[in-house]
Design goal:
By secondary structure, the protein is α/β, with parallel strands linked by helices. 45% of the residues lie in helices and 10% in strands. The strands form 2 sheets. The protein has a 4-stranded parallel β-sheet, sandwiched between helices. A two-stranded antiparallel sheet has the order 1-6.
């Protein structure tokens, strides 16, 4: 498992599942051509790009390059890196037929090939194996899953409602899961902002419990 500074953009959920076995970080799915009409998600990509940069990792077929081109037209080149997988004939196991191009996509690549693609793209490596930061006390005062619970954003009956309300308030995509929200908050906000947010939401949760 490796950690990289940049968020990685892939086309589909199976690409994300495959890449999640390699990197510990933010992976955003375009839902194929859905990125062309999803202004909320594009706004989210712009914010991530400004904060930590993006690496685009799409399939090496025509559709993949169209999606890559769309993102490139919306994100400044200085905030964007491009990772490319090789053209390899084949078919993913879950599919009944090969793609139109007859080549494997991101989900069909082995992890070593994907890691090499990220390296060649210039992705900023933070850790490569070895010890991971303490989950309860991560470097830099980042939020943890325990914080989400204390803030009322996970593990409670109304946590989903609270998350959606916060995501609307902060201008974050409504589709984010609890883990996705945690990643977004840690990526987009300073330690001071996170401390203020943590204290405000914890106090609100405590007041609600008293009522």
């Amino acid at each position: 498992m490796i950690r990289i500074k940049e968020a990685v953009v892939v086309e589909g959920k199976y690409d994300k599942i495959k890449l999640s076995a390699l990197i510990d970080g933010i992976i955003v799915v375009t839902d194929g051509f859905g990125i062309f009409r999803d202004r909320e998600k594009m706004k989210y990509l712009r914010r991530l790009a400004e904060k930590q940069g993006l690496v685009v990792l799409t399939d090496s077929d025509g559709a993949g390059f169209v999606i890559r081109g769309k993102i490139s037209s919306c994100i400044p080149p200085s905030q964007l890196k491009h990772a490319y997988i090789p053209d390899m004939p084949g078919k993913e196991k879950r599919k009944t037929a090969p793609s139109k191009a007859g080549t494997l996509g991101v989900e069909g690549m082995d992890l070593q090939t994907l890691q090499e693609a990220l390296r060649r793209a210039g992705a900023t490596l933070l850790t490569d194996g070895g010890a991971e930061p303490d989950a309860q006390h991560p470097a830099g005062g980042r939020l943890t899953k325990a914080d989400l619970f204390e803030m009322g954003l996970s593990g409670r009956e109304d946590s989903a409602r609270r998350r959606k309300a916060l995501q609307r308030e902060l201008g974050l995509p409504a589709y984010l899961s609890a883990v996705g929200l945690l990643q977004a908050l840690n990526a987009l906000y300073s330690e001071e902002e996170l401390t203020e947010l943590r204290e405000r939401l914890q106090q609100q949760t405590e007041r609600d419990e008293v009522v």
